[in-house]
Amino acid sequence: MITYSRQNTEPQPDITAPSTEDHIAPAPRVSVQAFCETVETAAAVQSAGEDRRLGKAHLKIQMGGMAAAIEAYRSAPTPNVIILETEGRNDILLGLDQLATVCDAGTRVIVIGRINDVMLYRELVRRGVSDYVIAPVGAIDVVRSVCNLFSSPEAKAVGRIIAVVGAKGGVGASTVAHNVAWAIARDLSLDSVVADLDLAFGTAGLDYNQDPPQGIADAVFSPDRVDTAFLDRLLSKCTDHLSLLAAPATLDRVYDFGAEAFDSIFDTLRTTMPCIVLDVPHQWSGWTKRALIAADDILIVAAPDLANLRNTKNIFDLLKASRPNDRAPLYCLNQVGIPKRPEIPAAEFAKAIENHPIATIPFEPQIFGAAANNGQMIAEISATHRTTEMFLQIAQRLTGRGETKKKSSLLSPLIEKLRAKK
């Protein structure tokens, strides 16, 4: 299906209110060649090539516009996607007719032009153009146009990946990740899966009181077998809406992975699960960095001390620089208020990070200890506890779903009748 894209002139959404409408599915491994006429468009395409969603695409940029493209493909095969910038109406149609004589079947063409006219658009569609974008364009316009070529409009939206990582070991990042995932599944009724990436010492199985015979290790060590059916067999069902891809938590083998080891697992989970929560261990390797940068939303969990402040700042800055077209990472403070422990106030923490925490979770050893030892979530022990509400608020912020299902009451039928009369 060919869509007519206009330049997005609306302000970028606030990072505090993420929307599912701006979610762009990553492009597969494709070759993209752009032929630009202006340095501004070339710069936008270059910036788009650095976006995480085009991380698998191979992008090449040349100047010269339509004429350069026609000349280039007289003696060379065409890529999966061609981006053409042109300014005149007649130049577009005439150039496309000439390009058609040298273009390979199956190549998709995106045209960047300055003429906003429906008749021109119809002519472009008739000639097989996949997308027409009104100049001037930004990097996100190019990213959206290329990625949408490979997202079927009839298919369900690609799942959103939420990565949760601790700024330091022992800050309770896994506990936060598991409770937030529980809130996403139970309170927001969003089908979710928790992927425990700490294969040696993961605690998701214990926290959800699950002991599955298989899990994520079976997938990462058998990349050729990874598909939807294979992952479905590895999932352990925790609730109606929550599943677990558990870590083995054994030391009988060494878990050294390449940077792309988990790519096929994440890509496959995206096709079937609306929400994937990654419990990322506190370590710095090629694959953990890649998992964080490739996630749609990121939550850093930190304790209020100097080492956590430094690490949060470093992670925050690196992710913002690596993801210029995404919302900034979010962070929360955990284990706040430990008796006799000097702490950095939340206001000072926020001043250094230049961003406020989305939650400040108090130190509650009794309820958290009971939950951990019983294999339960905080909400299962106390649905009205203040931390239960905090986990729900974090879940809402990360998913962009601010409304929860309203519980019915004895007055509901009467209220509905009164509304109907109005």
TrEMBL record:
<dbReference type="GO" id="GO:0016887">
    <property type="term" value="F:ATP hydrolysis activity"/>
</dbReference>
<protein>
    <submittedName>
        <fullName>CtpF protein</fullName>
    </submittedName>
</protein>
<dbReference type="InterPro" id="IPR027417">
    <property type="entry name" value="P-loop_NTPase"/>
</dbReference>
<keyword id="KW-0067">ATP-binding</keyword>
<feature type="region of interest" description="Disordered">
    <location>
        <begin position="1"/>
        <end position="22"/>
    </location>
</feature>
<dbReference type="GO" id="GO:0005524">
    <property type="term" value="F:ATP binding"/>
</dbReference>
<dbReference type="GO" id="GO:0051782">
    <property type="term" value="P:negative regulation of cell division"/>
</dbReference>
<dbReference type="GO" id="GO:0009898">
    <property type="term" value="C:cytoplasmic side of plasma membrane"/>
</dbReference>
<keyword id="KW-0547">Nucleotide-binding</keyword>
<feature type="compositionally biased region" description="Polar residues">
    <location>
        <begin position="1"/>
        <end position="11"/>
    </location>
</feature>
<dbReference type="Pfam" id="PF13614">
    <property type="entry name" value="AAA_31"/>
</dbReference>
<dbReference type="GO" id="GO:0005829">
    <property type="term" value="C:cytosol"/>
</dbReference>
<feature type="domain" description="AAA">
    <location>
        <begin position="160"/>
        <end position="310"/>
    </location>
</feature>
<dbReference type="InterPro" id="IPR025669">
    <property type="entry name" value="AAA_dom"/>
</dbReference>
<dbReference type="InterPro" id="IPR050625">
    <property type="entry name" value="ParA/MinD_ATPase"/>
</dbReference>
